[in-house]
Amino acid sequence: MPKEINFHFKSPKDSPGYLLGQLTMLWQRKQKKVLDPLDLTQTQFVLLAALGWLSKNSNAVTQIDIANQSNFDRMMVSKVLRTLEEKGFVTRQEHETDTRAKTIRLTDTGEAVLQKAIIEIENADLDFFSSLNENLSSFNSNMVKLIDTNKTE
User: InterPro entries, per this entry (predicted)?
Assistant: First the structure.
């Protein structure tokens, strides 16, 4: 007879990590449906969106800035940005003052694709999270708190 497996939580519905994993998979599936026609992965979209946000305040956005904004690994950001450059969505140029850094900019094509993607993703998110109704703001605040608490790990 197999050994009894002990869990801290009484059921999967009591486990925040298990629930987050389930929710993330469903949400990513919805995102994939809207991003596939735009030739973007979810990771590529996040990096383009981070670049879009950062570009509102700076003309010298670096790969490190994008990695910090997105909480993604720096090496992965570099690889994904190379792919986005190959697709013609971004340019990567030497930084004016830091020879180790690259300045990243959206191309006209990248701006157009990002704008389409933002509309599609925001509509998908509004639909996906619609059942939260007035609790959406609290849900978002809790996610920000968890990100801030755990981003250094």
Answer: HTH_MarR-typ, MarR/SlyA-like, WH-like_DNA-bd_sf, WH_DNA-bd_sf
Reading the block at residue 2, the tokens are 């197999």
How far apart are the C-alpha atoms of 113 and 116, rounded to whole Å?
Answer: 5
Residue 45, helix vs strand vs coil: helix
For residue 28 the two structure tokens come to 């990513």
pLDDT tens digits for range 33-76: 999 999 999 999 999 999 999 999 988 899 999 999 999 999 99
All domains of the chain, ordered by start, with CATH? 33-128 (1.10.10.10)
Alpha helix (H) residue ranges in 36-129? 42-55, 63-70, 74-86, 108-128
| pTM of the predicted model as reported, rounded to 2 decimal places | 0.86
Structure tokens at 81: 């940005």
